[in-house]
Design a protein that fits this description.
Elements: H1 9-16, H2 20-42, H3 45-62, H4 72-93, H5 123-127, H6 130-142, H7 145-156, H8 161-168, H9 172-194
Length: 208
Amino acid sequence: MFERIDDDAPRVQQARSGDLASFEALVEKYEQRLFGLALRMVRQREDAQEVVQETLLSAVEHLKDYRGESSFKSWLFAIATNKALHLLRHRRSHATVPLEPRAEQDHAGLPHPDYIARWRDNPERLAELPETRKLLDAALGELDEKYRTVFLLRDVEELSTKETALALGLSETNTKVRLLRARLMLRERLTRVLGDETTRMFPDHAHG
């Protein structure tokens, strides 16, 4: 397997030496992607903007501590993920209505889809449609936070499994399980809208 090359390394080194222009170039490269990640996690624009600002401030403060053990991108996205999760925990602690308990565990069996059908069109073509992207964003909003976060880091931002695990403080095995569950749950939600009803199958969960 080829080792991933961090093409940000020269700019990061210059930024660590005090070159403001290099750091600004890194900000310009990742700011919109950080905002997209934050918005999908916290679901509110003002909160997402706050997450991005706190992420960049933290990156400036701790840039000298960055040792290049992971790519700069994964390091930056790990900071953003932790900032977003902290905001979500703070939001929940001030909620007037208690959250329903989460009985689901990562080691539980994989979810059994209730809606199985062939998609009405080629998945690659459907994925390019704006309507499909809106459906995906809506489906992501319905996922439990721990599955949504893994999916965003691994499949949307394309961090490696190892980088995603490090960002979230998980084992690689646990990361893979959460990712698989997220993919399965998202596929079922999309299939309910994009599936061909005439090809629907009705699984017998009693024997699953």
